[in-house]
Design a protein that fits this description.
The chain is an alpha+beta fold. The chain folds into two domains: about 270 residues, Jelly Rolls; about 50 residues, no CATH class. The protein has nine helices and 16 strands. The strands form five sheets. Strands 4-5-12-9-14-7-6 form a seven-stranded mixed beta sheet. A three-stranded antiparallel beta sheet has the order 11-10-13, with no helix packed on it. A hairpin with an 8-residue loop joins strand 15 and strand 16. It is globular and about 55 Å long.
Length: about 325
């Protein structure tokens, strides 16, 4: 394990929860990668202990080829949706390219929303298939020759009770990142701080974890899937500014109320997690699907979704919403 510096650099946002590219304690040891079919129990145990897990070969060669072809085609057909046009979107600046809501217009992607390799593990970590809820689906790309990025260590959405609740699992939100290109040294790389989900700031994690604190780059070939608890501190490590990286990101929320384990009461102790964003929309074919399991999976609506549904899924209402005009 290499130690480059003892204190984090000052980040431009001034946010104490973040430290620019961490404390420099980057692990040189690759974490275990699990077969998503044969090693479900071990994969879930690793996630529960560390806040992340790497799944090897979650996408097969044909699926990797299909999703890359989709990205190539839509970048040519709908450059504005990717942030490639003249109206470059603010949320794309310095973060590469993002196609934010491809499910709205591409039903051919529907089978990937509950992928047979990763979804069974996702569902177990969220408390069961009847509790797993869709939250967000997007594609991202750091183009070849884009230069270094600028992302700090951070966590995504969190609930304050994560700091003290017992038991901790199931987690609140979970993200699956599938690699569509090989992520090797030199490429921008997803990086996590294992065991950091119960800390409010990266500095607290650094102090409390002590010698166990490490920043772990997650390299892997195309088809690799990384599952992480959104409360786990993570970043995209800068690459050499030359290699590209393309990924598919899907976020999940936990639905359902969790009852107390105490035998003397049946009171509820944990409500469903809130909607992850206030702008993400689910297409009509999924939100009001005739299949009850699909409706349940896509039932975690935010206010924007409710308003769009109330309009009869009017395309003009969609256009008026953030990231709704593609």
């Amino acid at each position: 394990m290499a130690t480059v510096r003892l204190q984090p650099e000052k980040n431009r946002s001034g946010d104490p929860k973040r430290a620019t590219q961490g404390f420099g304690k980057v692990s040189r040891e690759a974490p275990s990668a699990f077969d998503p079919v044969r090693d479900i129990d071990a994969a879930c145990a690793h996630f529960e202990a560390n806040g992340f897990v790497v799944l090897a070969g979650a996408l097969n060669t044909a699926e990797v080829r299909q999703l890359n072809a989709f990205c190539d085609r839509t970048q040519g057909e709908r450059p504005e949706a990717w942030g490639l046009g003249e109206r470059r979107k603010p949320h794309h600046r310095n973060q590469g390219l993002i196609y934010s809501q491809p499910l709205l217009d591409h039903p051919e992607l529907d089978p990937f929303t509950r992928h047979p390799a990763s979804f069974p593990i996702v569902a177990r970590l969220l408390g069961g298939e009847d509790r797993a809820r869709f939250a967000e689906f997007n594609f991202r790309e750091t183009p070849e020759g884009a230069g270094p990025g600028a992302m700090n260590f951070h966590h995504d959405a969190v609930r304050e009770d994560r700091l003290t609740r017992t038991p901790y699992m199931p987690c609140d939100w979970l993200c699956a990142i599938h690699y569509l290109t090989d992520v090797e040294p030199g490429a921008p790389c997803f990086c996590v701080v294992p065991g950091s989900s119960r800390f409010d700031t990266l500095k607290e994690a650094h102090v409390a974890l002590g010698a166990a604190y490490r920043e772990v780059p997650l390299y892997g070939p195309a088809g690799t899937c990384v599952l992480y608890d959104t409360a786990t501190f993570h970043t995209r490590l800068d690459g050499d500014g030359k290699k590209m990286r393309r990924t598919w990101h899907q976020y999940y929320a936990r639905g359902g109320w969790l009852r107390s384990a105490l035998p003397t009461t049946d009171r509820y102790i944990r409500p469903p997690t809130p909607a992850l964003t206030d702008w993400n929309l689910f297409p009509q074919r999924l939100a009001v699907s005739p299949d009850p399991n699909t409706r349940l999976f896509f039932s975690h609506w935010n206010t924007a979704q409710g308003e769009w549904a109330a309009s009869g899924f009017d395309p003009e209402v969609r256009k008026a919403m953030p990231r709704g005009e593609q």
